[in-house]
Every structure is written in C-alpha cells, then in structure tokens.
Amino acid sequence: MSILIDEQTRIIVQGITGWQASMDTKFSLEYGAKIVAGVTPGKGGQSVHGVPVYNTVKSALKDHPATASAVYVPALAAKDAVLEAIDAGIKLILMVPEFVPRHDMAELVAIAREKNVRIVGPNSNGLISPGKSKLGGIGGDRAGYIYVPGKIGVISRSGGMSAEISLALKRAGLGVSTCISMGGEAIVGTSQKEYLELFAEDPETEAVVIFGEPGTTYEEEAAAFIAEGHFKKPVVALIAGLFQENFPKGVSFGHAAAIIEGDAGKPSNKIKILREAGVSVASSLDEVPILLKRMLKLN
Amino acid sequence: MAKLTEDIGKELLQQMGIKIPQGIVALTPSDAKEYAQKIGKKVVIKALVPIGKRGKANAIRFADTPDEAEKHTYDLLGAEIYGYKVRKVLVEECIDIKEEYYLSFTFGDAERGPVVLASKEGGVDIEEITARFPEKLIKYPVNYLKGLPVYEAMAIWEQAGLTGQTLVRTAQITSHLYNFFKKHDALMAEFNPLVLTTGGEVMPIAVMLNIDDAALRRHPFLKDKVEYGIERLWRPLTSREKAVIEADLAEPGKGSIRYIELEGGEIGLCVAGGGAGLLQHDLILKYGGKPANHTDITPGPIENKLTVLFRAILTKPGVKSLLVGVNVLQLVRVDTYAAALVNVLKELKIDPRTFPVVVRLAGVAEEEGKKILATLPGIHYFSDDTTLEEVVKLIVKLTEDAKAGETTREHIN
Q1: I want to staple B395 with a disulfide (CB 3.0 to 4.6 A). Which of A167, B157, B323, B377 is the partner?
Q2: Is A86 at the interface with chain B, CB within 8 A?
C-alpha cells in the first residue's frame, strides 16, 4: 500500500498551461498518473499533452471527477487557487510554488483544518507512491529510475534530498512506499508528525526516513509523537545544517524556513531530541540505508 | 525578512490612525537642531538602521536642548551600528512614561499561525523578559480566521495584570496593532515598549517590523524602502552578493539564486536543492574542508542567473577550488549548468587542471551537459551513481593536493 495517493487517484492540475506544470504533467502522464483535467483561467477549451483545460475547478470537476489537485500558480495567486479547490470539494492539494506569503499559509492551514482538507507544501516538489502514481514534479522524467517500489516511507523537507535518499535506498536494495517532499517553508499544510500518523496506519510501510533541516519545530513534534509511543515502526533521521549554528541567529542558508531563532530550531537540538525518542540519527547520507537495514534486521 | 527602519514602521502606524510620538527624520545635524526646536521639548535621537538592540549600541540618545540634539546627530551620522552605516536619524518627542509594556506578534511553529506575546514588563528585550519574568510573559495563539477581537485582547492583558481603563485602552490598541501586523504581511511586529503615559494614554513608542519578502510585491508603498537581501544576513552585503541579488531580482519568478559569502574559506560552493546544499556544507566541514561561501538555487529557466552566480563564487579572493554539487535535477537541464560553468571558467581564465573543479550533475540533458564539460580539460564530472558525500570527499582532497603542489594560479580577480 501507500499513503495519500495510489493508482486510483484522479488528479487535476491548476495552472497547467505554465512551463513547469506542463512539463510535470507530461512526465506524470508518462509515469501513469491519472491527470484528468487542467485549469487555467482564460484558457478553457485548450489542451495540454492531451489533458483538457478548463477556466475553473468546478467546471473541470463537473466533466472529470477528481480528488487531488496540484497547484502551480504564481505564489501570490496560490491562496486563491487553493480556496477554489477546497470550495469545489478537492481533498488533497499539493502546493508547488515557493515564496507563498506566511499570512496566506496561516489562513489556508486554518481553513483546511475546518474543512478536513490535506495540503502538502508549499514549496513542495510533490509526492510519489512508486509504481502507482505521483503528484507533482517529483522525480522529473526519471521517477521510475529514482523511486523503486518498497516498504520505506520518506518524509523530506527538501525535494532534492527526497531523490538522493531514495537513490541511496535503491543502491542498498531497499524501496519506497510513499515519498513526500513536504516543502521547505515555515508553515506547511502537513507536518512530519501528521505524515507519521498516516504511515502508522499503512500496513506496507515498515520503516520511515525523515530528512530535517534547521528551523521550525517540526522534527521536535515528530520526536515527541514517537516518544509518546504513537509511532512504533523504526525511524531513521538525517538532519542537515549543523554548520548553520556557527552563524548568528536569524540567518538562512537555504529554504525560507531554515532559520534558527531559538534552541528549538537548532539541528543539534533536533538530533538530541530525536535520539532520545529512539530514532536512529544518521551522520551522513550514505549511513541512512545501513541504519535502516540494521533496524529492520536485514542482511 | 525585509526589515524596515523605525521611521517607516511609524509612518505605517500613522497611516492606520494609530497615535505615536511626534517625530521627524533628519539627514543633517542642523536639521536635527531645527526639528528639536520645532518639537519644543526634550527629544530622543534614534539612529535609523534596520536592526534591533540599538539602545545597547548607544544608538538611541536623549537631548534636553536643540544643541544637544545637533551634537548627538553629528556623532551618530556616519557611525556604524552592527555594520550598518547611519545615514538618517529620527528626532522624536520624549514621552512622559508611567509604565512600559511589551507586545509582539509573530508566527508560532507548533501553532502554524500568529502568536501574541504580551507582558506588563516591557522596555527590556524579549530575551530578558523571558529570563527574568517568565511567568509574566503571556503567549496566546490567534485563530487566523477570527483575528484578534478586543475581548480576546482584554483577556490577554487581564492575565498580564492590567486593570481598569488602562486594561480597556491597551486591549483596544492591541486589537488595532494585530490588524496592522496582518495588513502589512508582517512576519514579526514588535512594540517595545507600548507605554502608558502619565496622561493615561496607551501608545507604542517603538516599533520593529519585519515584512515577509514573499509578500513585498503586494505592498508597493514599501518597494523602495526596503534593502533587499539583508534579511538572511548578519552584516551588510558585499559587492558580489549585491550582483547576485540584482541578477536575481531582474528576472523574478524564473527560479532564484542566493549567495552568501563566508569569512576566509577555500572551496567555492555551488550547491543546490535547499537541504542537499546544507548537507554538503556539513560534510565539507566534517572532512576538514573550508567553504568560501554558500548558495541555494531554486530551479527554473536560470541561464543568466547561473552565469552571475558562478562569476561571484569564482572571483571571491582566496577561492582555490569549486564544487558544483547538485541533487538530481528535475527542473533544470544539466547542459544549462554546464554551459554557464564552462563559459565563466573560460572568461576568468581558470584552468581546471590546476584549480580543482568537481561537478556532480544528473538529470535532464545529462549527455549534452557532459559533452560541454569535456570541452575544458580537467573537470571531474560525476552523475547520480556517485553520492553527494563522495564528491565532497573528493573536492576536499583535491583542494589539499592543489595547495600542497603549490600550483600558482593566474586568476584575475
């Protein structure tokens, strides 16, 4: 099995006529994802790689029922696009754009909670359930090569690292149940802890890899969730950005969220709390599959 | 975060009808004297630099007379406060203070929404309040869909210990100031102190405002009032950093580049992919290398931007090698990177046979990219069958070898 998406998931793409959305749509269709319609206001009636384009989400869903949407519109238009999708009844929304204003995200998170909608991202490269489907650009034109079907769940704050970790698993003979690029922003729709809740319910996920970065308290929340006994499967974590602790607070070297403002955001603190929760923390990328195999008693 | 100087924050408060002390910006000592005369009472002279803790840096000074205002302004203009040169000061009336409170709005990680911090013990910085009066600091999460109505603000300040008309007035202004925080897309708005005057009025006499750079484009008023790129730094920008920011802003929405210089350092880094860049930086230090800079690249059609970025990395004095370490590319073509790199190496007459260049690039148009890199002998190229960790080890070793070999590089800076 997998979480969030599988071969049945019907997907629409908002902003489908843009260059990135169009390219991702092409690769996703080749991968087997069921993209049933696209939306770009003013371009209804056109088609992108054979996918029909509509002016609004409602009109698209009338002809082509779907439950998931990938949102590619510019950052300042993202809030409106997500609200449109929620209003039309979409239940899983991937937000691709980077630099979505923090106030817009706070509003969307509050609304999504009320309406029971799941938002992935923003600044997410998407998610993939290997061999079944993918939502977003994850894996580009070589998703099949990078992400091998298997039993490891991957939750990464970096899209690029989701690929590097999955490749490292592949080299070690392991595979992925679902891999999520959760987005590098301070406020994301779904936290690591919430993904762990989903992986806990997925019988085919046997272990999880978390890739963390400086800033926010998402890793700390996940550690508390594990420490309280809510997640019993093995977890391996890789936390980047230790070097950033040598610089003044408030500096970011990478994602907008990767800012250390207090002790909570420090990678060293995240590592400490994760270890105390029983998580196996890797000191390098190459060590991730070794630790996984040890915890799963393989070899 | 785009940090605003205090005068801009106060102008915005005035636009919303929030009462603040009377103040005028002065660019010269004689202007400051004139304004102090005009205000007609004791004034405070505040250096306008986009950074906090000015009091501790002696950048806020009191003047009993216009002559004193002139002298303080003379001393402050041109001085450096935490690396920022003072070009203007705020001449402001002194308020007769009865009590000082602390109020700020930020975003909480766990809440994923706005959080109010309030304390009856204001006037000192938040770290000090947290350390000295932890029980007196009220933390209150705001439901974004509801906002902060006066009755909720009332509950916060009642808990903080205010009573009577002061409680009512403080709650009213707190609700206004929350709307101010929201209206201007602030990541942080701090009013410290928020004061009770001897006349019984409640007003903010200082404001620190950090605007979300992601939202700046919907605030045209702020467009020319913000220095771009300083939000992630602890010091003013270097000329190479400025060049990268200019190139980045010139083509908005087409992928972005970020470049931060580090003191000293030998290994130029062109690392990308947010987390993958952080990881490589950690690994370079782990294996004993010294990074000269850090980068981050958001994918997009960024040919020109990559050229400017490579030029910045390679012209920083003291750079002895280059690592192009990029996670498997999903949105940029490998040949785009390769062409930009080879062009800049040629332009700067850098010979990869004596100046180590390690490249790990995989993804779309990999074969085309490989061919371009092969036109310049000496570049060490790897695809995704080599991990980021392996290329990090290699660049550290090659940099040491190059230093040991005393190969002199004729590299025009």
Answers
A1: B323
A2: no
By C-alpha distance, which of A16, A13, A120 is closest to A64? A13
A103 carries an active-site annotation: no
Residues from chain B contacting residue A105 (CB–CB below 8 Å): 112
Report residue B413's pLDDT band, with 50, 70 and 90 as the boundaries.
very low
CB contact under 8 A, B274 and A20: no
Does B150 score more than 70 pLDDT? yes
Report the pLDDT value the prediction gives residue B411, as an integer from 0 to 100: 44
Contacts of A277 (CB under 8 A, 6+ apart): A223, A224, A226, A227
Chain CA centroid to CA A120, Å: 6
**Do B259 and B295 contact (CB within 8 A), yes or no?**
yes
Instruction: Give the full edge-to-edge strand order of the sheet including A10-14.
Output: A47-48, A51-54, A34-39, A10-14, A68-71, A92-95, A118-120
| Mutation target among A120, A142, A253 for the B interface, most CBs of B within 10 A | A253
Mean pLDDT, consecutive 10-residue segments, chain A of 299 residues? 93 95 95 98 97 98 98 96 98 95 97 97 96 95 94 95 94 97 94 97 97 93 97 97 82 68 82 97 94 90
Distance CA B402, CA B378 (A): 13
CB A215 within 8 A of CB A258: yes
Residue B183: alpha-carbon gap to chain centroid: 21
Distance (Å, whole) CA A175 – CA B276: 20
Q: What is the pLDDT of residue B55?
A: 82
The whole-number pLDDT of residue B123 equals 81
Q: Which residue, among A299, A277, A274, has the nearest Cα to A289 in the 3D structure?
A: A299
Set of chain A residues whose Cβ sits within 8 Å of the Cβ of B389: 284-286
CA distances from A268 to A215, A222, A238, B392 (A): 11, 15, 11, 21
Q: Residue B332: which residues within 8 A CB-CB, separation 6 or more?
A: B255, B297, B299, B300, B302, B363, B364
For chain A, positions 101-120, list CB contacts with chain B under 8 A. Answer: 101-107, 109-111, 114
- The ipTM of this complex is 0.91
The answer to whether residues B31 and B1 touch, using CB atoms and an 8 Å cutoff, is: no
Q: Which of residues 13-52 of A touch B (CB under 8 A)?
A: 19-20, 23
CA-to-CA distance for B394 and B321, rounded, in angstroms? 11
The CA-atom distances, in angstroms, between B392 and each of B257, B265, B287, B298, B326 are: 21, 15, 8, 21, 11
pLDDT digits (tens, 9 = 90+) for B48-61: 988 777 888 899 99
Residue among B3, B82, B84, B112 with most chain A CBs within 10 A, to mutate: B112
Residues 6+ apart with CB under 8 A from A177: A1, A2, A3, A129, A130, A149, A150, A151, A152, A153, A199, A202, A204, A205
Nearest to A254 among B143, B277, B285 (CB): B277
